[in-house]
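Why do we care about 3D structure at all? Because function follows from shape, and shape follows, mostly, from sequence. That is the central idea of this module. The next example makes it concrete: a single protein chain, its amino acid sequence, and then its structure expressed as tokens.
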Amino acid sequence: MTTIVAVQGDNFSTICVDSRISYIEESGYISQVFSLKEGNCKVAVNGKYLLGAAGDMRAINILHHAFQPPIPAPNLKGKKLDEFITAKFIPALRECFEQQGYASPDSNEDKKHIAEQDSTIIVSIYGVIYVIDGDYSWASDASGIYALGSGSSYALGALQALIGKSKITLANSKVISIKAISIAAKFDPHTAFPYHCFVQTSKSENDLELNKVNKKSSTLRKTSSKNGKK
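And the structure:
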């Protein structure tokens, strides 16, 4: 289980994730709970991309260690970037998932689509956010705020309340995202410290920065610009 929150700003994106992993039996019993290590969190920094997933741990493993996403042309934006995600990125993601055995079997009679997988993927490229569903369709929300995972309802409400009528800036997007995921953690038992916040601008992958929230001080502490997870 997981909670991911994201904010779309002008020429930048911010994604914040928690670190709790819960294994739940079919009966609903939580058989195991643990926290992911700092270099193994729920968002992967993969080339020019930020890639996160809410759903299966396997999806995050693949995004970190097996997926080689196509490289977009410099300064790609607007409709051209949408077309790239639709025609280049998503087919590459699907092919990788299928090669790694992470896809619904063709013999599954309950399938509603030719291609399906069991996680929701969040992608940021050049500071633009896309959410890819289990049937490989994508959407970008006009509100510019996103929440995925088990604590998403709490986080989304918190994001909306915290932003209010304020303009989203690079600085306040990090503060708002962390507050929202902290609120979700109070109500969702599958969301917990530490939190990791990633920021990407429209310029290049070199503008990525990773911040880890210190539970004692509740402040942002800049660390390395590598790694992420489910």
